[in-house]
Amino acid sequence: MSRTGVFVCHCGSNIAGALDVERVAEAAGKLPGVRYAATYKYMCSEQGQQLVRDAIAEHGLDRIVIASCSPRMHENTFRKLLKDTPVNPYMLEIANIREQCAWVHTDREQATEKAIDLVRMAVAKVSKNKPLHSSFIPVHKKALVIGAGIAGIQAALDIADAGYEVTLLEKESSIGGHMVMLDKTFPTLDCSACISTPKMSEVAAHPNVTLMTGSTVESVGGYVGNFDVTIRQKAKYVNHDLCTGCGLCETKCPAKVTSEFNQQLCTRTAIFRPFPQAVPAKPVIDPDSCRKLSGKARCGVCQAVCPLGAIDFEDKDKLITDTYGAIVVATGYELVDWAPLYPEYGGGKYPDVITGLQYERLVNASGPTEGKILRPSDKSVPKEIVIVKCVGSRDKKKGRAYCSRACCMYSAKHAHQILDKIPDACVTVFYMDVRTPGKNYEEFYDRAREDGARYVRGRVAKIFRENGKLICRGEDTLLGRSVEVPADMVILETAMTPAPEIRELCARLSISTDEYGWVQEAHPKLRPVETQTAGVYLAGTCQGPKDIPDTVAQAGAAAAKVCILFSKNEIEGSPMISAVDENKCCGCSACVRVCPYRAVTLEEIDSREINGTVKRHVARVNAGLCQGCGACAAACRTGAIDLLGFTNAQILKEVDALCL
Amino acid sequence: MLRYAYYPGCSMDTTGVTYRMSIEYLARKIGLELMEIPDWNCCGASSAHAKGKWQALALPARNLAIAEKRLPGLDICVPCAACYARLLAATAAIRESDETRARIEEITGVTVKAGAEILTLMDVLGTDEGFAACAAAVERKLTGLKVACYYGCLTSRPRAITGVQNIESPELMEKIVSLSGVECVDWDFKTECCGGSHQVDAPAAARPLVERIFRNAKANGAQAIVTACPMCHLNLDMREEEINRKMGTAYDIPVYQFTQLLAVAMGASAKEVGLQKHFYPAFKRLDRTLRKAGTLQ
Ligand SMILES: Cc1cc2nc3c(=O)[nH]c(=O)nc-3n(C[C@H](O)[C@H](O)[C@H](O)COP(=O)(O)OP(=O)(O)OC[C@H]3O[C@@H](n4cnc5c(N)ncnc54)[C@H](O)[C@@H]3O)c2cc1C
Ligand code: SF4
Ligand code: SF4
Ligand code: SF4
Ligand code: SF4
Questions:
Q1: Does B185 touch chain A (CB under 8 A)?
Q2: Which residues in A lie closer than 8 A to residue B189 (C-beta atoms)?
Q3: pTM of the full structure
Q4: Residue B219: its chain A contacts at CB < 8 A?
Q5: How does pLDDT run across A449-461, given as a tens digit for each residue?
Q6: For the domain A335-497, what is the CATH code?
Q7: DSSP secondary structure code for residue A150 in this structure
Q8: Could you give the 3-state DSSP secondary structure of residue B155?
Q9: Superfamily for A142-234+317-332+502-566?
Q10: Cα A292 to chain center, whole Å?
């Protein structure tokens, strides 16, 4: 017979005000197996906890029921308390008589009856509890950061500075992401390259950081503390151990294609560094545009000119496998492909309708025009410039209801820069709202208007061409009339959208994305840099649109979470996970299919039957991966897989206690 | 086989007579059989749907019903953009819901399935067969004439019903009319609204809509505008003089139906396609273009 103690909490007047706690304790005292029942004003207080300790000692209790607030509040408090007593911390049940009873009922009599029912269920369940013991998982203190924009770089630096090893993965041939493409950054207008390139060199030179460019995640196995990750490193065709980065090959390569880094505004060669300050500062060959590697011609010019014999046309992709304790996803954003979405803006047929990012390259001193704002069609200086905000954002018809968050501010930046660089320029900004919720942001926007930017509230409905001008027709919703503004160049501030292939990556990591593909955080307020898979964290715009200050702050937070994990040698795994009774398991694999964490696998065992030993398959649960969600237990038709702490027997006891 | 049920619409004998003449000429030349739906009625055009939903659906639906019974198995060719929009809307509504269909049958007193496809004349001439037949019938080229193809708003909208992908810049008229040898300019007002029937009830308000179409055509180098709808044609052709007078502009842009240019290229004379019936002089520009290749008389 079990020896259960029941403790009913008043929670001040929270519970005691709505129901009769004394009657609940009295009824509890009469339940089978209950040896002791009491009430106290605040069970979670030190005095309340002492009451439990004393009762255990005095009455030889072997299991405990606390009737109080939600287990989310204090289950851990009471488990901790039991650690120092003879009672196993898992021989505990919480009856939630606050959130699910006192707070939602007004009839004192009925609330009391319900509280008694809830306690009766908890007492019944705890009678079937079994002592459980935590397992301990060793932590491999090496982190993997995926994506080397400013988010990934910052997270890698912070983790490395804390003394842990980091591998920083980047799919492009240089790290830096979008930030190095920008010219100046709001609201301080400091040069983007000047503040990001030092960080790029710092992370590359850091003794704790291994940089892997041209690399992506091929597969992920394992679990928190022990992820086994296979990385695909694309063939570079240049031996970086030999190459000095002299750049001779780039000057001689005859194959030219449009430059991704310069947003199609100029060309690059097939053997290339995306930009002069690239890290690593050594070229790679793009096999699609290389004449030799694509089989179009014999070429081989780079090989002939390289003074160090660094060119290696035989280079192959490499697969590298390593173990990581934690993973930070920092894959950033892309800009939406606006052309097919906006036939009314010409759908890409006007060269002088450009994106904000193209503008950043135009105004950048190391860009294709060396910082002179020249429009692409005829390289003339545009005088009349229209900036269109929210292109692709905040418009369900165009597929994205969300706000891209940074464009209000960088469009003010663009207006300011144009008015600064082109003295007699005329800048019109079409806007829906102006969103400036950051430190010094509103002041920055004010300044753009004082500089002379004309803000017109309304969307642009159509852009068409007449006599060499681009006419932007829209509605001025403040004046309630349509307007036509002629322009020499139009800048579209286009929506941020998640990096391509993000869904595949997330599937490999067993984390989820929202309807647009932004990576889902574990809790929007309280766990913003965690994912629902333990040991996988988020940094930067992969989680949703944001500017650089927010990106860097989030990267620091993700790094801190990694360091917390790495501060322990082993992590305590919850013992409330699934277990398989191999005698009952028929190997149907229903559990394998439903487990969202891929924690169940089928394994072959030797099974002794009446007619000798036979081989058969049974389910096996990986304790590191199982998150205790219970899906498998619900799916199993033979009842072979059971969730410890919530076994079928425990649940049935509860149901019986309520219904019989 | 180039054989279709044909819904001419009310304007073909009046404001759209030049369209009719050129369609008939062209049909003879390429062996296109247009079987007029017997006892057809007005489709409701641009006014019925302002009066009431059921009126706007039942009027065109009666025509669909007759075509089904009397010209079974034929798709329906509709040369007017407004009629096309109405017949297509009724077809979509009937196909979408049995309830709507039942209500329409109750109003019209005839059964209707709406199985036939509704096609513009451009759709018909744009089929492989129609296009080849046109190409084969061309005898002379209108080389050197720069035209802006104007579709109006109703052949592509609403997208949910028409399924047209490139609403802003369709290419079908360009493809077909190029057979006549004209050069089609790239411009931006292909599918803007001409004001529709508001040119009649609110001309002052609707005038700027047509003016903008002329303005953009001219700014992009067009010497003429080509339409594929009696209403679009009327609204542009009839208002050009008035716009020049009242708005101080000096447009000199004749407006042709695309079928007129094709018919002329196939050998038709000015009279045969009704060039003398235009409001804005349309003869000279074509005559000058053609001088090299033959005569318009
Ligand atoms: C025109 C424009 C102007 C802007 N101006 C400003 C400004 O003035 N001030 C400001 O604060 N913000 C500005 N922003 C916003 C700023 O660009 C972002 O906040 C910031 O760059 C986000 O950094 P990130 O590291 O999250 O993403 P990113 O810079 O996109 O970095 C992500 C990195 O991950 C890599 N990657 C992606 N997928 C994978 C994968 N599967 N495997 C490996 N690597 C991968 C990418 O190649 C990239 O290098 C501007 C944005 C735009 C578009
Ligand atoms: S082989 Fe020729 S095309 Fe290819 S990278 Fe070398 S120089 Fe360029
Ligand atoms: S020429 Fe050789 S050493 Fe110089 S950058 Fe090219 S590959 Fe490197
Ligand atoms: S930040 Fe401003 S410009 Fe960008 S989507 Fe939001 S409201 Fe539009
Ligand atoms: S309890 Fe959930 S996570 Fe654990 S094995 Fe079952 S289904 Fe997978």
A1: no
A2: 464
A3: 0.84
A4: 465-467
A5: 999 999 999 999 9
A6: 3.50.50.60
A7: H
A8: coil
A9: FAD/NAD(P)-binding domain (3.50.50.60)
A10: 40
